[in-house]
Write a structure and sequence with these properties.
This protein is an alpha+beta fold and 434 residues long. Helix content is 32%, strand content 22%. It has an eight-stranded mixed beta sheet with strand order 5-4-3-2-1-6-8-7, sandwiched between helices. Strands 11-10-9-14-16-15 form a six-stranded mixed beta sheet, with helices on both faces. The radius of gyration is 22 Å and the shape is globular.
């Protein structure tokens, strides 16, 4: 590696994981990718995995100490990057930009840059942790680690909520009187998974050979966290998540939308404060974020395990219920957004290019894709069974699973939030260099 080469590190912090990719800053070629799992999980050992892309066969896996916190795990990630053959002639100071995926940016309309001596944005970010308690505080912790261990780098904070800033007022507004006390941010729909949707929009537009600004899509990002987004002319106009990630679809451990009164009957001390993720949340938030969803219905948050249990004879009743609930809720949003696109009052807007499945469940769940996508027959859409079951991708990250006679495309797209972060951070810094 030439000595002059500078690097960009993209970091994606989850509630118990860190995904990362190291890029050459000039070309955005991926040099190293990896992940850390079981971070800050009591009773579990954090595990860091690295893949060096100059040699796809070279992988490094190292098991860490039990219960390691985010800052300690991140320091070990930096140490392992330095030890990699890709960095044999470099050190951590070659990392000039760190791009952070941050779930909630509130009313922020652009990325935030933080570096040594200019750390004002961190206070704002920490205040937003109450709206994304499982993610934002982790991101703040990681930014602090970067300021300590990568002092020469600039931290670019990229918010999932940015992609949804184009949602119109009649959709983002909740029908409630203004609160008597001023909240940290306006209480409205913000939406999440924005970096994923931006990545998917880019790849699907290239697959369809259309400009992003002409794409009308319904995208289902289905993983342990799940949401659906309606995109018209390349802009988000509706999405299932709200002021927090809790609204909308159930997830691995999230309940998704429920009658707001339910939690007070389910959990009598719902308003009590408890420690969670380095901060405090109400018992209601803890129960609905960590004790709901697939885990509550089937005893596992692993959708693959639920599908396997459906194939048993007789089928597992809990797995059947969990699958049915999840599929129904996904269909509710897909159906609503499809109708909004195809039934738009302006004839020029009344079109839908594709239904797109993404995320771990969307990319691997052929049964779910068929069950949900099959309802598009009402609009002339059709899933091709052979294509749907095939593992092969036709064009990079995108696979077509609709039949040739289908009037609506049905696609599967691998999302890449880390690469999207890298692109956006590089572009932002190039346009705002001092």
């Amino acid at each position: 590696m030439p000595d002059a080469q500078q690097l960009l590190l993209a970091v994606n912090c989850g509630s118990s994981s860190i995904k990362f990719k190291l890029f050459a800053l000039d070309t955005l070629k991926v040099l190293i990718s990896g992940s850390a799992s079981n971070v800050a999980v009591s009773g579990s050992r954090a595990t860091i995995k690295l893949v060096t892309h100059a040699d796809q066969e070279h992988q490094h896996k190292e098991e860490e100490e039990e219960g390691m916190e985010y800052d300690a795990v991140f320091e070990r990630i930096i140490e392992q990057l330095e030890q990699s053959s890709e960095l044999s002639q470099r050190d951590r100071h070659a990392i000039r930009i760190v791009a952070h995926r941050v779930v909630h940016g509130g009313a922020q309309t652009e990325p935030v840059v933080i570096y040594k001596g200019h750390e004002e944005g961190l206070e704002m970010l920490d205040k937003l942790s109450e709206f994304a308690p499982l993610h934002n505080h982790r991101a703040v912790t990681t930014v602090h680690s970067c300021l300590q261990h990568l002092p020469n780098s600039k931290q670019v904070l990229l918010f999932d909520t940015l992609f949804h800033s184009t949602i119109p007022p009649h959709i983002y507004t909740y029908p409630l009187e203004p609160p008597k006390e001023e909240p940290a941010i306006p209480l409205r729909k913000y939406g999440m998974h924005g970096l994923s949707y931006a990545s998917i929009l880019h790849d699907v537009a290239a697959f369809l050979q259309k400009p992003e600004s002409e794409c009308n899509l319904v995208v289902a990002h289905l993983g342990s966290g799940a949401s659906v987004c309606m995109i018209r002319n390349g802009k988000s106009v509706d999405t299932s998540m709200g002021v927090s990630p809790l609204e909308g679809l159930p997830g691995g451990t999230r309940s998704g939308s429920v009658d707001p009164v339910l939690i007070f009957h389910h959990t009598p001390n719902a308003g009590a404060l408890v420690e969670q993720g380095g901060g405090k949340v109400t018992k209601a938030e803890l129960v609905m974020n960590k004790q709901g969803g697939l885990q509550a219905l089937a005893g596992t948050s692993d959708f693959g395990q639920i599908l396997a249990r459906l194939d048993k004879s007789p089928p597992d009743e809990k797995a059947e219920l969990a699958y049915g609930v999840f599929a129904d809720r996904v269909l509710n949003f897909v159906g609503s957004y499809t109708l909004k696109l195809l039934g738009a009052p302006k004839a020029s807007d009344a079109r839908m290019d594709a239904l797109v499945f993404s995320g771990g469940i969307g990319e691997r769940g052929a049964r779910l894709r068929k069950d949900v996508g099959g309802y598009l027959r009402a609009f002339g859409g059709e899933v091709d069974d052979a294509r749907n079951e095939s593992k092969a991708s036709e064009s990079g990250s995108v696979k077509k699973i609709s039949s040739e006679k289908s009037k609506i495309g049905i696609l599967v797209c691998e999302t890449d939030e880390e690469t999207q972060c890298a692109k956006m951070a590089k572009d932002w810094m190039a346009r705002h260099s001092e």
